[in-house]
Structures are given as C-alpha cells and as structure tokens.
Amino acid sequence: MSDATRAEVAVIACAELFRGDGEILASPMGLIPSLGARLARLTFEPDLLLTDGEACLVTDSAVEGWQPFRKVLDTVVPHGKRHVVMGANQIDRHGNQNISAIGDHTRPKKQLLGMRGAPGNTVNHRTSYWVPRHSRRVFVDEVDVVCGVGFERARDAGVERFHDLHRVVTNLGVLDLRPDGIRLLSVHPGVSVDDVVENTTFELDVTQAVETRLPSAEELHLLRDVLDPKSLRDKEVR
Hints:
Layout: H1 6-17, E1 25-28, H2 31-42, E2 49-50, E3 56-58, E4 63-66, H3 69-76, E5 82-87, E6 90-92, E7 97-98, E8 101-102, E9 110-111, H4 118-124, E10 126-131, E11 139-140, H5 151-157, E12 164-170, E13 173-176, E14 183-187, H6 193-198, E15 210-211, H7 217-227, H8 233-236
Parallel strand pairs: 1-2, 1-5, 5-10, 6-11, 10-12, 14-15
Antiparallel strand pairs: 3-4, 6-7, 8-9, 12-13, 13-14
C-alpha cells in the first residue's frame, strides 16, 4: 500500500499529461503542474523541454538552452510545439475556460487575471488545465467569459486544425476534454465517482472511470527528496 498523499497523486496525474509529448516545450503554470512536468522529465519523458519562465531552457541542475519569450511566440506557439497547463476559474461543458472575470464582463462581480494567453494557447497547441479545488463554482454549464476556446467556438471560428484541448486534473480526479462531452477518466484514491459528480454542474460520462495511478517508489523519492523536499505541494492540495 502506498502512503502517497492526495497532492502527490495530483502531481502524478499532471506528470501523465505530458506522456508521449516528446521534444516539445512544457509550460506548466502553478506548483503542482510544474512538479508534474519536472517529474515527467526525470522519468518517462526525458526529451521534454522546460523553461525558467524568462529566457532559458533548464533542467533541475543546469541551463541547456536559450529561448526568450519572443522566440516562444514566433516559433513555438504557432507551430504546435508546446503543451501548456493553465489554471481555470470556470470550465463549462463545451470546454470553454474563464480566467478573466466572474459575472457580467461589463460590470463583473469579481475581476480576475484577464484573458492573458488563453485564446492563443487553445487555438494553437495542446492545452490542459489544473484545478486545485474541484467544485460546482468551477465546473459550470456556461462560463461567464470565454478565455480558453472550447470545442463549439473553435469549430464555428474555423480554427479546429490546431485546437487541442487535452485534460483537466483536479484535486478529485482527471477529466478528458472531448467535443462530444467531458468524460471522467479517473478518481484519486479516497475519492468516489459520486464525489466528482456532486461537485460538477454539468453531466459527465463516468462509464470508464478508474482510479488514478499511484506514484512508484522512485517517483516518490524524486518528488519528496529532490523536487519538493519542503512539501509545498501539500499546502496546495490538502
């Protein structure tokens, strides 16, 4: 039996987002996705490219390349050579994401980050999402503001060719973003399918849900002793 915490299972789920990606630029936003990307790089995806967020491609111990942000925008983003993991204040049944505002956009109840790079990310390369607190306030029927572009809007705008929504990892499980509806892929240990359904406003396909895999002994060692010895992960997911 593993003694992995919920946060460590979430890190593993985020690492699995990058399985099979090969030599692309990983852009994980937030602690848990960043730990997942670094763990994937150290284990099953050694060709994954990681950035320091400024101008360098890095490993955990060295700088291995130079890639300023303008080069990312010119040569990486428009050519699909990137997998970004963004946050989401709202996600709806169509795969639209909101990080801009809650309520009417002309007079919002709460101002958030703004559009940021969400529209360009979702129509140019693979995009996944990380939600540390899965609730009906996040998983809604319709987002208040569309930042990340969902399936119907991508089709209507004629940008389906490079539109690649992938997964949502939350503190409860992993969701598969699909044009025909969102599917529950797995629930974390200690979480039931009913827990996820009760915390999601729209209907989920739960027919193929399994349990999220646990970290191996090697992965736990890397996570606890190398990547996050201060256990900051457990402050994000309790």
